[in-house]
Structure formats: C-alpha cells, structure tokens
Design a protein that fits this description.
heterodimer, A: 184 residues, alpha+beta, 4 helices, 11 strands, B: 1018 residues, mainly beta, 22-stranded antiparallel barrel
Chain lengths: 184, 1018
C-alpha cells in the first residue's frame, strides 16, 4: 500500500468519524436553559386526538425557574389555582414534575363516602421537543390521573360513592397518552 | 606440441572460468527461533560436500554454492536441533534453529520433583516470574487472572490488605471446600498471595490426577506450586526495582441526589397507599439546595472515599554463585494507603525477605536452605475490623438527604442516635492493628548414590513454618448532633442541636494472639537413568509426615508415602504411574489411610521418524498427545484455622454438650445436665475425585504458533453433606455430616500462542487462553418429595432456586391475561409495573411450584484471557484482556432495593417503571417493601447480579535503555515502565464490581492502578 493511498483511507476515516460525531449532536438536543421562563399551555392531545381545553386549562401559566422550581397559575370564572413543585431532567429525554396526585384512599360503602388521598410525587414526562419558545412533553398515564390530579391544572374530583366507584376504579386502570404543548 | 599444450591450458582455464561463473554466493543469517537473537558460530555445510561456513558475530554467513537451486544446507549448533535447509532460488536466507536444550532439558516443577518438560504428561499450567513482577498488584493471587488456562480467579474485595483473590482450579468439583492445595518450595503451606512477586520463579498449577495424585488425600482440588528463585553459577547479579502506583476504586454505587431520593420516597409511599414523607416545600429545598443543613444533599461517597490512594513496592535482590554455593537473597517492601478521607489509620505494610542457598557440599552431596519470611502489618479503623463494611457500605448506603456531614457549628451531623456519621467512622471509632509474621524455613539434602547404582539418589527435607498473628484494638466513640430549626414560645426560630452518642477517648479494648506452627519432614529415594539412549526411567519413593499446631487446638497430623514411576521410550512414548498412600486424622482410626493412584500415557508424535523425516523442518515443532486417569482425595471439611471448624473436626467421635438440667432431690438443688450432640459419623471418610484428562500440546512453524488443549472429567464422590434435611423429626436427634454427595465436573481448556519477529527489531506475540468448567450435583441431601427442578441434584453447584422474572406487567390487561400471581404467599394485589414471573410448570398460576433452579453459581464457568505484546528496539508493550462468564451472585438489601433498611437509593432506581417509560426502564415500580409481589420465602431472578465481564486487566509499556549506553556505567539492564491494572471494565452489572460476592455489596471494589516502575540490574 503506498502512502497516498493510506493517507486517503485515513482522511476518509477521520471524515467519517467527524460526521458521526456531528450527527449525534443535532438541533433536536434538549437545552435545559430553554426550560426557564413563563409557559402557557397551548394544547393537549389524548391518544393523538386534540382535546378541548377547559377555560381554566386555557389560562394556565407555568413559571419554570432555572433552579428546579416551577409554579403554575390558572383560573376560570369560579376557580383559581396555584401549584408549585420541582422539576428535574433525566438523561436529556425525561422531565419529572412533582405534582399533587389524588388517588382513592378508602372505598365507599352504603353509609360512607370514599376518600381521596393526596401525594406530592414525581411525574415523568418524555420531552418530545424543547426550544426557546415551545415545549412539547408526553405522558402515558391513567385517565384518572389526568382527570383528577394536579397535572398542571387540578381537576374536579367527585365524591366517591358506591354509585361511581366502579367507574372511578376503571379510570385508574385505563391509560391514555397525553401530549402537552406549552409556548412561551 | 607446444601449441597443443598451450591450447589445452587455455581450454582448462576457460573451463574453470565457466565453472566458476556457474557458482554463486549464498548469504544468510542463523538465529535462535525463540529469541530471534543471532547464533554465533553455527555451522553450515552443503549436504554431500565438505564445503561449509561458520556464522560470524552477527550470526551472518556467506557460502559459495553451485547454484541457489536445489541445494540443501545442514545447519547445526550446540544446544540446538540441527536442520536440513533446502535452498530455493533465494540468495539470502534466514534460518531459525530451535533450542534442543529447551526441549530436552527445560525442567517443569511437578509434585515433589522436577521433570523434563518433554516428558511431562500431566496437565499443568505455568506462569513465570516475568509475567508477575511488574504488575501493580498488592498480592500475587490477583496476578493470575486471565493468564492461566484452567484457573478461575474471583477477587471479591479490593480492601487494602484484604484483597486476596479466590483461586479455583478447573472450577468447583465439590460443594465442600474447593480451595486448591498450596505448595511453596515443595512444602504444603497455607498461602502464597503475600509472597513478593520478585521472589517467585514460577507458579505451576497441577490440574489432572497424574499431576496431583502424589498429594493423595489433599490433591483433589488441584495444586498450586509456587517455586521461589534460586541462584546460579554466575557473578553476582543485583536487581533493584521500584514501583509507585496511584490507585483508585473501580466502581462505586452511585447514590441518588437528595431531591431524587426524597421524591422517590414519596412515590413509593403513594404506590403503597401511604402518605408523603416530604412536602412539596421540602422537596423544593432539596432540589434547590436552599437549606443545606436541614435538607442536605450530602454526597457521602465523596465525603468518605478519596479519589485516589497510593501503593509503593520496592525490591532488591542479588543472585549468583560458584561451584560450591549458589545464592538468591531478596528483600522487599510494599506499602499501601487506604481510600478513606479523615482516616489516619488505614494502611498495609509488608516486608518480605528471602534467602535461598544451594550448596554442592561434595560431588555427591547437595544441600539447599530456603528461608522465607515476611511481616504483614495491617492497620485499619476499628469499625472495619471485620472488613471495610461499616465504612465503605456506610458511604453509599447512608442517605444523603438525612443529615449533613457537619452542622453549621462544625459538629458532626446525624439524625438520630442510631446514625453513624460516615465521615467520622474511619477516624473516630478507634484503630485495629494486626501484625502477622511468617517464617518458612526449609532444608533439603540430596545425596547421589551413583557408586551403588547410576542415577540413584537419596533425599530428605525438613521444614519449620511459624505464623504468628497479633491483633490489638483501641476504641473510641464520638457524639453527633441532630440540627434543626425550632420555634420558641414566642414563635421565633432558633437553632436546635440534639446530641446523639457520647464522646469517649481512645482506649485499649482488647487483644488477641494466634500462632500456627507446622513441622514437615520427608525422606525418599529417587532414580533416573537412560538405557541404550532409548529407555529412560525415573522413580521416586518418599515418606512424609507433617504436624501442625494452630492456637489452642489439638495438633493436626498427616502422613503418607508417595511414589512415582515414569518411563519413556526413545523420547516418543511416555508412561507414568503416580501414587500416594496417605491418610488424615480427620477420620476414625482404622479408616484413615487410602491409596490414591494415577496413570498417564503420552505420545510425542513430533519425535516420530515419519514426522522428522518427511515433514518440512520446523513445520511441526512439537506435538504431544497425553491422557491420564487417577483418583485423588480431599480431607478438607472447612477452614481449620477458624474456630467454627472445631465443631466439624472430630465428627467420628460422639460429642456431648453441657446443657439443660433439672432440680431434684432434697433441698431443691439444681443439677446441670448433659445432652447428646449430633450422632457421630464413625464412617466419615475423604472425598474422592476420579479424574480423567486427555489433551495435546503442539507448536508449529518453528514454534511460531502453539496450541494446547485439554479436556477433563471428574467425578467427586463422598462429599461431606449436611443430611439434616433428610432425617425425619421423629428420629429425635441430628446427625453429623455424611459422605453422601456426588458431583460431576467437566470441561476443556485451550491455549493458543503466536510469537514472531518481523525485521530486525520488531517482535510481537499473542497468547490466549480459554477455560470452561461445568459441574453438576449428582447426589446431595435433597429432601424426598422435592420437585425435580427444585432439587440441587441435576444442577451446577450453587444454582439458585428462584422465580424467574420475565419482565414487568405493562397494564391491567397484561395482568388479566397472565397467570395469576396472587396465589403466591404474601401477595394480595398485582399492579402494572410489578415483576412478571414465569409460569414454569405451565399450570396457569404462579405459586411456589414455579420456583426453579436457574442461572449460575458464584464461581464462573468460563474464564479467558488474551495477552497482546509487542517490542520494538528497547520499547515493549503488553496488554491483557481478561474476562469471565457464567457466574452470578445474590444482590439483596441496600445493593438491590431502594431505601432498604432505611438506607439509600441509587441511580438505577431512578429509572423506574411508569406507563410512560415502559420498555425503557431499569427498575420495577417502587413499593415500600422490596417489591409489591415479593414472593414470601422465595428469590426472584432480578435479585441476581451478573458476574460476566471483560476487563482491560493489565497494560504495560516499558523502555529498556540501550546496553551500549548503560554498560558504560556498569549496568546490565535498566528498564522504566508504566503499567496499569483494571484500566477498563465492561460488564452487564452496571453499578458494582461483577466480582462482588457480598449480597449487600459492602466490600470495596477492585482497584484501578496507574503504576510507574523502574528496574535496574547490574
């Protein structure tokens, strides 16, 4: 093998290596610094079907701070909500928000209603995109979590009775995939 | 007439010139095939003529031949195999001669003797001094990893001064004590790992019965023979070496940060239908670090474990001799510092000294005196007296969210009185000092009786070993403080410190001494002779006895008679019989002795005429077939240096214990009683290993390529077994262990080598080995009625009995469509994210009948190593990759489960299952106990650690200064080098060392070392 031929091979190896390096860094990479700011909920889809935002969801504003804290505010004509918690990004692909979760604590009987239990726990979303002005995150979770927990906006929880316990229980067993789009 | 004469002269001259013009000059070089060094003075003759040449100082020659075609040169030199070299149209030829002395006279250490390598037909793996001494390891056992076929090495701990590797020969053939026998300079000894590598000439591993039968009742687990260096008849040769290494732990669990831990605690509470441990505000404080003392994020592993430590080794030795005495004297020092911060104590210092003298007292009488001594000083924090567990485990298992290392006022932090502050455990709980001194003294005499019978000699050996160990401990304690902010009656905040524990100054606590003495003696005769240059016979017959006293225990003794008879016919056909009639006092009188014989045959095909006459010279440099069959024993039933062994020692004697009592007679007097212990086993006997081995050794193309292969089979029977599980309760008493167990062990080993030299200065080599050993329990004390797949019988030793995880339940539909698991004891509800078990028996439900033996034991079935080496002029480079496969270990408690025992959580726990991360998670859904569907009393396959790995075990780069340069300052060799140990590790186990064998992961991992060394010889 002569030297020029060897050089050509080496150059092509370097070019290939360089291309591989650059190909692994694309524009889709998550920049954590993009996260901080004031975000407004733009849309939600449920299993890829757009959901109609309620007035309180439409008003949602979330302030995400660089230090790992978020606060959210929402209101409609009859209800004002504010929540706060923490966030953390894992592996540049997942984001956890600590949210107020509500689950059935005790089941109802003929004389007594059931009760809800609240926990403030990490809730894991996949980051689909995060730019300086748009954040799209996805979560596959139980219908009841979206409906009754403070997944940025807290839903209205019904009284737990023998009449609805089966429906509620089923909602805690069936999953849906929700995609939240926030814009700055 | 004158004209005719002139014409005739003219014709003659012209014919001469024509003839001269048909001849040509052939040039070439003759080199040593192994070293590629030129051979000076080699003879080259043209076959069929008297014409020849001799090589010059550079091994070069020049010879005139009729033509360069079809000329055969006979090339010879003393000590080398002569060859006929056929010239084929080349004007420059490179001829390599194979050393005949290497073939004929190279000696291999075998049991009780040395044998010519050519005649060895047992299965033996060897490693020599050059492969050991430059490694940055603190003990020699670590250096065997990946270098020897048929040897499995597991190093479960990297703790300073306590990092000895477990060495197994051909895996395990018993579920009893599988440790091989250690023999140092011909004497059975307890340990070899702390011998200075610079003192060692070779380590030979005897694997088959042919090699080990001479050790009789102690040889079944294989034998490791360590031979130390001795002097030679030469001027004094001084060697000085120094090494300085920077060491660091290879792999430490990665605890979660405080925010992740506390968030997980809330999550698992939620999953278990419980309330939060931490409020949203507290989580924010953990996330932001706003309250570093109340809501700390203490990185205990960083607080406790240093990034690096140091190790230094020095050695000076001198060897030489004359016709009367040959000597080797060596002194070495190793010092190793610990890995803990705030630790004024941890270090390991070792002083080694060895003197080996060989005297040729008369023409016939030879004497050898061997003295090896060492002092091992271990100093470690008192809390680490039984290992680094308290400190190392504490560093990763203590939750960083609980308390800060130090409070605002500088006091040590804690949360409650049961908390040790890990930063202070190393330095403020006292010190443990252990000094171990070892003296190993041996005297050999050999007297040749040629005047009676040619080749006859008598020999004798005595040795005295003394190991003394003294342990002292000083203890202290320290107080810690729980820091928090409280409010007074007026609602004002104030800092509160609650004291935990007490301050006690360092004071002497206890000491313990231990002494182990061993006296050994042997006398024997040996015979070696060759008849008619064809029949070679060697014979050995000796009797030996050893007595050993360990501490306060009754002395141990064993004795035996060893015999060996070898025969070779024309260096082609070999036969060998080995036998040992020996016994052990572990057994009842009258049942203590047995004969352990072995038989071996070998065929050195490469010495057959049909090879030497027909094959191209050097094509088949060596080809030997060999096979052996024999019976070897093992009387080991435990570690005799340990207190707990004493209960197993005299199991043939009925034992009675002080226990119970009764009040009777007048005066209500209480009389203590005696109860019968377990019923004695009067027939207790040794394990017997029937070993068969077949293999070949070969090298081709003038030793360019070497291939060795062995297959083996062993049936170990009479294994001492706890039979309590098969004795019904109505018998009313327990029984001592009985010899009921049987284990089969089989496998193969492959070694491949390739060494070559390209051009004048470049050499390279590849050496690989691969070992596979799989055992199977044939018989043990499995209780009657146990399902076949739950018995130990039929599976390799240590195969765990457990439920097999086949993933997690992804949804409630998945749960509904899968076999029910609520039939498992203790399991009431299954939810998505829980472990899904295999319905092994296919009956549609998961219950106790679905647990089955699966996976592997703790000793790897497969180990392999590949060494790549290269040299160019003075530079040398070698790299050893070493790997292991088919082994598992149990992970439990804090190394498996988050917040186990109120401890920590690790990075893998953060990658837990949620519906969103399904298919991309490392851990199941969290629960407050280990797992939601933990099967009561059963093990789950997710708790098994995977022992498979590949390590870049050693890397060494050196430079030897040119001899032309150093000879001016009267040095014969100077080499500087850099070497590294455990540089990289690839394993399926991500967070702990795959050699870990502690089910809580509490042993220090192996260390990575970056070592700088210097060797000077003069």
């Amino acid at each position: 093998m002569n030297i020029p031929k060897l050089s050509r091979i080496l150059i092509s190896l370097f070019v290939t290596f360089g291309a591989l390096c650059f190909s692994s860094c694309n524009d889709e990479d998550i920049k954590e610094s993009n996260l901080s700011g004031v975000w407004t909920l733009s849309s939600i889809t449920e299993d890829d079907v757009p959901m109609t935002l309620s007035p309180i969801e439409s008003s949602l504003q979330m302030i995400i701070e660089q230090n790992g804290v978020y606060r959210s505010f929402a209101k409609d004509d009859s209800n004002t909500q504010s929540h706060y918690g923490s966030w953390i990004i894992t592996d540049n692909t997942l984001i956890d928000f600590t949210l107020d979760y509500y689950q059935i604590s005790t089941k109802p009987n003929a004389n007594t209603e059931g009760t809800w239990r609240k926990n403030h726990i990490p809730t894991r979303f996949t980051i689909l995109s995060l730019t300086n002005d748009e954040m799209v995150i996805r979560i596959k979770t139980y219908i009841a979590n979206k409906k009754y927990s403070a997944m940025f906006v807290e839903g209205t929880r019904p009284a737990i009775t023998t009449a609805n316990i089966d429906v509620l229980t089923e909602e805690f067993k069936r999953t849906r995939t929700y995609i939240y789009t926030f814009k700055k | 007439m004158k004209i005719k004469i002139l014409l005739a002269i003219a014709l003659w001259i012209s014919s001469l010139s024509i003839a001269a013009s048909a001849q040509t000059t052939l040039k070439g070089i003759v080199v040593d095939d192994a070293t590629k060094e030129p051979i000076i003075g080699a003879s080259i003759f043209i076959v069929g003529t008297t014409q020849g040449a001799v090589t010059d100082l550079d091994g070069l020659f020049s010879i005139t031949v009729p033509s360069t075609k079809d000329v055969v040169l006979k090339v010879s030199y003393v000590g080398y195999k002569p060859i006929d070299y056929k010239v084929k149209n080349n004007s420059y030829i490179n001829i390599a001669l194979t050393s005949s002395t290497a073939q004929l006279d190279e000696l291999v250490v075998v049991g009780y003797a040395k044998q010519k390598k050519e005649s060895v037909i047992g299965s033996i793996s060897s490693i020599d001094n050059s492969s050991l001494k430059a490694l940055p390891v603190s003990n020699v056992s670590q250096a065997l990893a990946g270098k020897l076929a048929g040897v499995q090495v597991v190093q479960p701990s990297g703790e300073v001064g306590n990092d000895e590797a477990n060495v197994y020969v051909r895996g395990m053939a018993t579920y009893g004590d599988a440790r091989p026998l250690i023999v140092v300079d011909g004497i059975v000894r307890e340990n070899f790992s702390q011998i200075d590598a610079n003192e060692i000439q070779s380590i030979n591993i005897l694997k088959d019965a042919s090699a080990t039968a001479v050790y009789g009742v102690k040889g079944a687990n294989g034998v490791i023979i360590v031979t130390t260096r001795r002097g030679s008849n030469s001027k004094p040769q001084v060697s000085i070496s120094a090494q300085f290494a920077i060491t660091q732990p290879t792999r430490i669990p990665n605890p979660l940060h405080a925010f992740e831990s506390t968030a997980l605690l809330n999550l698992r509470n939620s999953n278990a239908k419980s309330t939060d441990t931490y409020s949203a505000l507290e989580l924010i404080n953990y996330r932001t670090g706003a309250s570093p003392y109340i809501n700390p994020d203490t990185r205990w592993t960083e607080e406790v474990i240093k990034n690096s430590s140091t190790m230094q080794q020095y050695n000076a030795n001198v060897s030489g001799g004359n016709n009367f005495v040959k000597y080797f004297v060596s002194g070495g020092f190793l010092t190793q510092d610990g890995f803990y911060r705030n630790d004024p104590y941890t270090n390991f210092n070792r002083f080694n000294f060895r003197t080996n003298l060989d005297f040729d007292i008369t023409k016939r009488l030879k004497a050898s005196l061997s003295l090896g001594t060492r002092i091992e000083n271990r100093q470690l924090p008192a809390s680490a007296h039984y290992g680094s567990w308290d400190i190392y485990r504490g560093s990763f298992a203590t939750g960083g969210y609980k308390f800060a290392a130090t409070n605002p006022d500088g006091s040590l932090g804690s949360q409650n009185s049961s908390d040790y502050n890990p930063t202070a455990v190393a330095g403020q709980r006292g010190v443990h000092r252990k000094t171990k001194s070892v003296v190993e003294l041996g005297l050999n005499l050999r007297y040749e009786l040629d005047f009676l019978l040619k080749g006859l000699a008598v020999r004798g050996q005595v040795s005295y070993d003394n190991t003394g160990e003294n342990s002292r401990q000083w203890e202290e304690s320290y107080s810690t403080y729980y820091y928090t902010i409280r409010q007074d009656a007026l609602g004002n905040d104030y800092e509160s410190y609650t004291k935990n524990g007490n301050d006690n100054q360092l004071k002497f606590a206890w000491e313990d001494a231990y002494n182990d003495q061993r006296i050994y003696g042997e006398v024997g005769v040996e015979y070696s002779n060759t008849f008619n240059d064809i029949h070679s016979v060697t014979a050995l017959l000796l009797a030996n006895r050893s007595e050993r006293t360990i501490g306060k225990y009754v002395s141990y003794a064993d004795e035996g008679i060893v015999g060996r008879l070898t025969y070779d016919y024309d260096r082609r056909y070999f036969a060998e019989v080995n036998a040992c009639y020996n016994g052990s006092e572990n057994f009842a009188p009258g049942k203590r002795y047995a004969l352990f014989p072995s038989f071996a045959l070998g065929w050195l095909i490469s010495n057959e005429k049909f090879i030497t006459d027909n094959a191209k010279p050097g094509l088949i440099s060596n080809l030997k077939l060999r096979g052996s069959l024999g019976w070897v024993g093992s009387d080991r039933s435990g570690d005799i240096t340990k207190e707990e062994y004493q209960a197993l020692r005299f199991i043939y004697i009925q034992q009675y214990n002080n226990a119970g009592g009764a009040t009777f007679g007048t005066g209500d007097n209480y009389y203590s009683g005696i109860t019968q212990g377990k019923i004695a086993n009067e027939d207790v006997t040794w394990e017997t290993g029937m070993k068969a081995n077949i293999g070949f050794e070969s090298s081709f193309f003038n030793n360019l390529i070497g291939i060795n292969f062995d297959m083996f089979y062993e049936r170990r029977s009479n294994i001492l077994t706890d039979i309590s599980s098969i004795i019904p309760d109505y018998v009313g008493s327990g029984f001592m262990n009985a010899n009921v167990g049987i284990v089969d062990n089989k496998g193969f080993e492959l070694e491949v080598t390739h060494n070559n030299k390209i051009g004048k200065d470049f050499t390279y080599g590849i050496k690989g080995n691969f070992s596979f050993a799989r055992n199977k329990v044939v018989k043990k004390s499995d209780p009657l009625g146990l399902l076949p797949y739950q018995c130990e019988e039929g599976y390799p030793i240590g195969t765990p009995l457990m439920y097999k995880s086949i993933g997690v339940f992804e949804s409630y539909e998945d749960i509904e469509n899968s076999p029910s698991q609520t039939t498992l004891s203790g399991v009431t509800e299954i939810v998505p994210g829980d472990t899904k078990y295999l319905d092994f028996n296919g009956d549609g439900v998961i219950d106790i009948n679905d647990a089955f033996r699966q996976g592997y034991g703790t000793v790897p079935e497969i180990q392999y190593g590949i060494t790549l080496s290269a040299g160019y002029k003075g530079f040398d480079l070698s790299v050893l990759f070493q790997g292991s496969a088919h082994s598992q270990f149990v992970k439990n408690w804090e190394i498996m489960w988050p917040f186990s025992n109120n401890d920590n959580a690790y990075s893998e726990h953060w990658r837990y299952w949620t519906p969103e991360t399904s298919g991309n998670c490392e851990f199941i859904r969290h629960y407050t106990t280990y797992q939601n569907n933990e099967p009561s009393g059963g093990t789950n396959s997710i708790t098994m650690g995977n022992g498979d790995y590949v390590r870049l075990k050693n890397l060494e780069f050196g430079y030897s200064l040119p001899k032309s340069l150093i000879s001016k300052i009267r040095l014969s060799g100077v080499r500087v080098y850099f070497s590294s140990n455990n540089l990289f590790l690839w394993s399926k186990e991500k967070y702990i060392d795959p050699d870990n064998r502690d089910n809580r992961g509490g042993l220090m991992p192996q260390t990575r070392a970056f070592n700088f060394g210097l060797n000077v010889n003069f």
